[in-house]
Amino acid sequence: MTFQQKLEKIIKKNNSLVCVGLDTNASKIKSNQFSFNKSIIDATCDLVCSYKLNTAFYESIGHIGVKALKDTCDYLKNKYPKIPIIIDAKRADIGNTNNVYVQFVFTYLGTDEVTVH
Fold this sequence. Notes:
Blueprint: H1 3-14, E1 19-21, H2 33-44, E2 50-54, H3 56-59, H4 63-79, E3 85-91, H5 95-108, E4 113-116
Parallel strand pairs: 1-2, 2-3, 3-4
Domain Orotidine 5'-phosphate decarboxylase: 17-117
Catalytic activity: orotidine 5'-phosphate + H(+) = UMP + CO2
EC number: 4.1.1.23
């Protein structure tokens, strides 16, 4: 199923055009990023058409943040597979570098879309 098809189905099912940004700033929350994200996801899953995660908020704190990003994506894929996941990474580079960005976003994280510039 393409991203567009997946998006159209969830828009219709949830009657929503809301995309929730999980741009979770670890310095501003009391729990870890994944737990915080999970609570937001569970509270909004019937109100959204997608979730968007900005990688900078996760990458900026190193491997713990990347793990929280991966755990959040895995949770969404496993518990709410009908809701598209968008990675906000604003990636753009030469072909070889783009290939490894693609591997991280689509293979490792298993998401549906990525922002570019």
